[in-house]
Sequence to fold (475 residues):
Amino acid sequence: MSSALYHVLLICTILNIDTRAYGDVRFLNKCIFSTKTPYFWIKSNDEVVTEDSEAICNGPDKTKLTKSCVSFHINSLIRHGIRYPGLKWIKHMDEVQQKLTKAIIRPSSQSGFIEKWANPFPNEKEHALAPSGKSELFELGKRFGQRFKMLLEVETEKVQYFVSSKERTFDSRRAFHDGLISIFSTDVIGDSYKVPIIDDNILRFHSGCKKYLDQIENNDTALGEYFKFKNGPEMNSVVNDVKKRIVDDVDVIGTISGDDVQTIHQICAFELSFFGKSDWCQFFEKEDMEVIDYLNDLKHYWQKAYGYKLSSDMSCPLVRHIFQKMDDAVNDFEDGEDFTVGLFRFAHAETLLPLYAALGLYKDSEPLMASNFERHTNRLFRSSKIVPFAANIAFVLYECDINSDNEEEEDDSDDEDEESIYVKLYVNEEAITIPACGEVLCRYTDVREYYSQLIDKCNFGQICEVDKIKDHDEL
Fold:
């Protein structure tokens, strides 16, 4: 076994991969790289997708009362697929390779490749959707089509797409659409199903929030915990270990910085997601990857999620849009009118994370801090799992009939569960507990009331002190 493969396999034990199959290249694709993690590294594409034609849910006592539910509307947000690095990272990659080539007089057995390495990520491709990203979204579209086939196949003209102004979301939407319809028996797709609506106000709200840009995004003091950890003992240990694996000459060890190590980590992540292998990965051990993963989570936690209330507050145009569209679907469904059965939005990690925070998802009981790394080994807020490439969140509305196995209690149960419209919340295709009711299946009115402040009292201009969307790209 090569040294590179051996070290990648060590890294991949983070997810407890069956090492008996370590010779199979598929197991290289199981590592965690924060928001640079491909979707099908955390979600097996070999998993059998069960059609959601009818959902049967137990009642409170798990035995007597059941709800027989049929879906009639899906309302989702999907992150774009695997993309090329941003221009900043591409330049850093070139700089690190040049710096190490000049500095290493006697390379270690692991670093002999560096001098001949050529950056595979051209400047002109920065942030563009990668071929692997298109495949990722195509497969995701197929999975959505399989799960909601009964709903979507017969109503293909009643599906709507929204995208941000970035080309990678257009391309992701197109790939998803192709995957979705690939499992349907009909080729008749209406124009409204094909043409996406561009809306940065709901999908890139972070770009138009002046207060957020000034106080958080472009303000290093807002990332105090991130920088404390970056300069703390855990990261210093990682940097020193990586240095020793790169060079045998101790005199040049000081030339390799923490920023260089983060760049090497990025090369490893992107090359693995593009090509399934990377010589750069051999410089990291499992423990190193856990530390770097926490460092990245600190940044996302404080900059985009629970660190500051503003991050969740500024997502209210999106929350309002989601619920207004569900309100419309509920009203039209009950009135027997035509309505949109599927709504798919394509956006960014910067869109999903504030939404998670607004909905109260993946919130740890203790904030992520530089000082509590050890206590957060099993944290809920792990960006590699909740917001990888192609991450997705979907509200699904159901009409439910209430049935009781005990006829004497049937009248009481009908009174108690008079409402017939319920909702499930899926994240990365898994139904999760909804904070509004503490269950997987909740009354729609209860969920709407729980988030009513964000829906009905959203004043983006007042929250963000701005009324114009500006272009601001992710890194």
Remarks:
- Residues 152 and 335 are 20 Å apart (CA to CA).
- The beta strands are 55-58, 65-79, 159-163, 197-198, 342-347, 392-404, 421-427, 430-432, 441-443.
